[in-house]
Every structure is written in structure tokens, then in C-alpha cells.
Amino acid sequence: MDKLRSKFPVLRQYIYANTASLGLFSEDLLDWRQEHDLDFLLGGSTMRSKSLEIIQRTRESVGSMFHCKSDSVALISNFSLGINMVLSSLEKNRKILLLENDYPSVSWPFDSREFNILKIPVSTVLEKDIEEVVEKEKIQVLALSIVQWVNGVKIDLDFLKKLKAQNPNLLIIADGTQYCGTEDFNFEESGIDILAASAYKWLLSGYGNGFMLFKESVKDKFNIPIIGFSAAGADETQKNNIPFVKKFEPGHLSCLVFGSLNFSVEFMMKIGMDKIEKRIKEISAYAKEEFIKLDVLEDLVVNRKIHSSIFCINGNDKLFQHLTDNGVVCSQRGEGIRFSFHFYNTEKDVQEIVKIVKAAK
Predict the structure, then answer these.
(1) Mean pLDDT of successive 10-residue segments in the chain (361 residues)?
(2) Is the torsion defined by CA of 13, 17, 21, 25 positive or negative?
């Protein structure tokens, strides 16, 4: 993994602990994008067939990465757009369970519609709380982020699989933006019915691209009222024969931004998602141990066995400025300072951050 660091120029200037805000561009991706735009410059509309090939290849690579059939992959510009498209055809007055303080783009689309919404806090026994509320309140839809954006709390995916088995009619919608790209994930074998994600964070693909994955069993439950010429493959005779996932792609898709997604997915798969997962878990365990020693984590994070590689420590504006002045790229979130570590981070990065935090006390 250390050799891969050289592909990310930002790491030569900063201690970058901010992938939860924006994943890094690699030099290889920049080379691909420049070559792509040069082809457009010289070829114009002759790039049409090539652009369609790029889009299809992206759909297939995303399906391969997340163990999902390519015809169950919709390409979207971001999570927020995708979830709103789904909810546009979800029946009113459904009983919805959300998590308090989840990412706004998860909760706001539900809040703005006529649903019967319950929210529960993220606790040490989150999974137990969800199970009890689903049963007691006869919840019809559970929507949540796999990884919480502020403190990095991660839902137990085995629990979701068990929950779905116990409640087959429960619709489980997940935001994978802070999760996808951190470990090997089998969508078809999971308990999640719909997973949507923006790809500019852990998938290192830049802005403007994302995807939705659908279980076959949910496709006939939604009558998506969105349509466009491109969804029909620019064929007027196919207006009434548009495949389900294409309803989420009514207009043209940028082969630059989705080609970037394809490039990054293939790049990460070449490294090996098993290796990436192992590395992230190692750095996460190390960071958690060091932050516990500093006594800067909330008890919720300390006491949960399952966690991501996102950590929010106690810290004010002064500490954040001190970190920034010392070359640490991180984010202020909630009432603390958030660090997030990807496979290109090292234990040395954590050590330097701990050293800087100690010096500020």
C-alpha cells in the first residue's frame, strides 16, 4: 500500500485525513481524464459510440465490485438525486424509521413528504433498538446510512441481513456514500433492498457520479414517474419499454465523470478489495486505540465493537486551526473534529495527528 501513496500528490503536502469529505484524485485518473478530453477535442461527435461503451463498462464494473447484476445498477449524479427519485413513487403515509442526526440528505427527503416518521438515536445498542422499534411499530421502511457521517458509527450489516430475513416485507434503503469503497461488499447477499451512493469520497472518483443498486424483488414495487429520451436509448419506439434502472437515467450521462468512476473502481479492484478492507481495518483499529488513550472519543464510539475509519474527537475552533496550521486536512463536524482514514493513510499519519493534538493541550 505504501507504494500507492506516490499516486496521490496531496499526500506529499499534507497529512490527509479527510476522505469522508472528499476522496483523493490519483495521477493515473488525471491522465485518463486528460486523454478522454483530448479524444473529444479531436473527435467531436465521433466519440458517441465510445461514450456509450464507457457508460456500459461503468455499469458492469460497479456491478462487479458490489456483486450485483449490471441491469440492477442505475448511474446517478449523486445520492441526493437518487433517493428523491425513489421517494417520488413511494406511497404516502408509510411508516418510516430513520436515525437521529443521520446525514441530512437521508432524512430531509423523507421529512419533506407525507410519511409517518419515527426517529431513534444512535446508541451503543443501535441494532437492538432498531429491531425492537421495527417490531413494535410495524415499520415498513428503514432508511439509514451504513456509516454515520459525523462520528463514523457503522451499522452491523449481518444484523440488517437478519432483520430482513425476520421482516421480509420491510424495505431497507441504505446510503453507502461513507461506506462503499472501504470493504468488499456483496449486495445480492445483503439485507439491503436499495443502496445508493455518491462516489466522490471513498471511491475516489471526483464529483458528479454515483450509483443505485436494486434487488430484483423491489423493482415492481415502484412506478417511477421519470422519463426521458436517453432512457429509451434514443429510440422513439421504446418509450413504453424502458428498463427499470434506466428510469433513473432520463437524460444523457457524462462519459467523463462516469468514466472516472469506472477508472477508480477498476483501479481499486486491481489492488484488491480484500487488501483495501484489511488495510482500512488496521488503520482504523490503530487510530481508535490512540484516540482512546487521548480520551477524546465519545463513549458511544468507544463501546461499540463495529466501527468505520471515521472518528470525531472532542475539539474546538482553536484545536482545528492548530491542526490546519500543522498541515492536517480534516473537518469540523458536530461539536468536534472529524478524521477519516483510507487505504493510502498510514500509522505515521495517526501518530502525527496525536502528537499535534497533544501539543495543543
Answers:
(1) 89 97 97 93 83 94 97 97 94 95 97 96 97 98 98 98 98 98 98 98 97 95 88 88 92 94 98 97 98 96 96 96 97 94 97 95 73
(2) positive
Please spell the DSSP secondary structure of 130-188, one letter per residue: HHHHHHHHT-SEEEEESB-TTT-BB--HHHHHHHHHH-TT-EEEEE-TTTTTSS---TT
Instruction: Classify burial at 281, counting beta carbons within 10 Å of its beta carbon; exposed 0-12, middle 13-18, buried 19 or more.
Output: middle
Given this model, what pLDDT does residue 334 score? 83
- Report whether CATH 3.40.640.10 matches the domain 38-270: yes
φ/ψ (deg, to 5) at 343? -65, -20
- What pLDDT shows up at residue 214? 98
Chain centroid to CA 210: how far?
A: 9
**How many C-beta atoms lie closer than 10 Å to residue 134's C-beta?**
20
Whether the predicted model's global pTM rises above the 0.85 cut: yes
> Cell for 3?
507504494
* Calpha distance 30→216 (Å, rounded): 36
Q: Where in the chain is the domain with CATH 3.40.640.10?
A: 38-270
In the structure grid, which three cell numbers stand for residue 70, read together? 449490471
Q: What are phi and psi of 197, to 5 degrees?
A: -155, 140
Q: With beta carbons less than 8 A apart as the criterion, state whether 67 and 187 touch.
A: yes
CATH 3.90.1150.10 placement within the chain: 2-25+273-360
- Homologous superfamily assigned to 2-25+273-360: Aspartate Aminotransferase, domain 1 (3.90.1150.10)
Q: Show the cell assigned to 254.
A: 457524462
Residue 160 contacts residue 154 (beta carbons within 8 Å): no
pLDDT score, position 47: 78
| C-alpha cell belonging to residue 48 | 458517441
- 257-289, pLDDT tens digit by residue? 999 999 999 999 999 999 999 999 999 999 999
